[in-house]
Amino acid sequence: MDRDVILVAEDNEDDAFFMRRAFDEAGLRNPFLIVPNGQAAINYLAGVGDYRDRTKYPQATFVFLDLKMPFKSGFDVLAWLKERRDLKVRAAVLSSSPEERDMARARELGAVCYLIKPPTPEMLKSCWEQFELS
User: Residue 108's CB: how many other CB atoms inside 10 A?
Assistant: First the structure.
């Protein structure tokens, strides 16, 4: 799984920076790509528009989604993924919201794990283990 592509949908550059750093500190060396919003995540995963070239933009196997983003939310992307059973993409949520209703909705929509920002290396390792088991 060390070569599986990870897609991160995050509109905050600082949060994206801390996510990348936590991945490095966790020893996860997978190819790591960041898109700025939920619509870009859907376009990337579907291989349309700017992301049509799969040589340049290989299919992601894992996606980490911020919940509150412009254009499409993390929930919107989870709902889209749930309908696209042909895509073998596992998802996790990154959020500053500790609300149980957000966590429950994310689980209902298929999120493997729910991480409160900023994620620590230990949180990412635990989520990664859940990805591998799912």
Answer: 12
pLDDT in tens, 20-31: 899 899 888 888
In the chain, the domains with their CATH numbers are: 5-133 (3.40.50.2300)
Quick: pLDDT tens for 54-84. 999 999 999 999 999 989 999 999 999 999 9
Coil, helix or strand at residue 59: coil
Strand-pair partners of 64 = 8, 92
- Provide the 3-class DSSP secondary structure of residue 95: strand
Helix, strand, or coil here: 81?
helix
Distances (CA, A) of 24 to 30, 31, 76, 96: 9, 11, 28, 21
pTM exceeding 0.85: yes
